[in-house]
Design goal:
With 237 residues, this protein is of the alpha/beta class. The protein has a single domain, classed as Rossmann fold (3-Layer(aba) Sandwich), CATH 3.40.50. Helix content is 46%, strand content 15%. The chain contains nine helices and seven strands, in the order E-H-E-H-E-H-E-H-E-H-H-E-H-H-H-E. It has a seven-stranded parallel sheet, sandwiched between helices. The protein is globular, with a radius of gyration of 17 Å. The termini are far apart.
């Protein structure tokens, strides 16, 4: 059965991989993006919705757009995020709070809006995209790591609040994934990341998307509040 899926930050990387994976199985998929949607979004037949998730009004407008075009959101993938890397002693308050507001509070905003329709339907799937950085920390990424760790507490709290309404909430924690950001790093740095992974390679966005797609499926109806690593064995804890 075709479902309505919304992927925030679905214009590239892991978000785009998730969006196209859902579209490939026949779901009606919308993605949020802050700028002009890339050609990949348009050619995949995805509904591009402008939205800055740090603005509650834009979040509400985005959902209203999706509801008008496709119907109530049944699956939410909260993937949108930013980085503002730097050592703590050089990190400004704005660098810290901007990352928290986008990655953590932004995910809270879209989840809060999504559950309204899911509660009425008594069915829904929410998947929050965290990171291995939120589980082990990362030098130069105190803000990013804190935001991604916060998604675990947020997701598990949502899972407990809404489980009686047929809504599951889970968290995926990708490791080093070969996105545009990682691909821009020097080859020797990419090689060092791959060497640290027990599987001996970097992950692909599509591999994260497959886990997300499973968590949104009927087959995962008894999975909620879980943190699922997609990191090639980098963090076994």
């Amino acid at each position: 059965m075709s479902r309505v899926v919304l992927v925030t930050g679905g214009n590239r990387g892991i978000g785009l991989a998730c969006a196209t994976a859902f579209a490939a199985q026949g779901d009606k998929v919308a993605v949020t993006c802050r700028g002009e949607p890339p050609a990949e979004v348009l050619t995949a037949g995805l509904l591009a919705v402008p939205c800055d998730i740090t603005d509650p009004d834009q979040v509400d407008a985005a959902f209203m757009h999706v509801e008008a075009e496709l119907g109530p959101v049944e699956v939410l993938v909260a993937n949108a995020g930013i980085t503002r890397d730097g050592l703590v002693l050089r990190m400004s308050d704005d660098d810290f709070t901007d990352v928290i507001d986008t990655n953590l509070t932004g995910s809270f905003r879209v989840a809060r809006r999504a559950v309204k329709g899911m509660m009425r339907a008594r069915w829904g799937r929410i998947i929050l995209v965290s990171s291995i950085a939120g589980r082990v920390g990362q030098t130069g990424q105190a803000n990013y790591s804190a935001s991604k760790a916060g998604l675990v507490g947020l997701g598990r709290s949502l899972a407990k609040e809404f489980s009686s309404r047929g809504i599951t909430v889970n968290i995926v924690a990708p490791g080093p994934i070969l996105t545009d950001m990682l691909a821009a790093l020097p080859e020797e740095q990419q090689a060092s990341y791959a060497e640290a992974v027990p599987l001996g390679r970097l992950g692909q966005p599509g591999e994260v998307a497959e886990v997300v797609r499973f968590l949104a499926s009927d087959g995962a109806a008894y999975v909620t509040g879980a943190v699922v690593p997609v990191d090639g064995g980098l963090f076994m804890g």
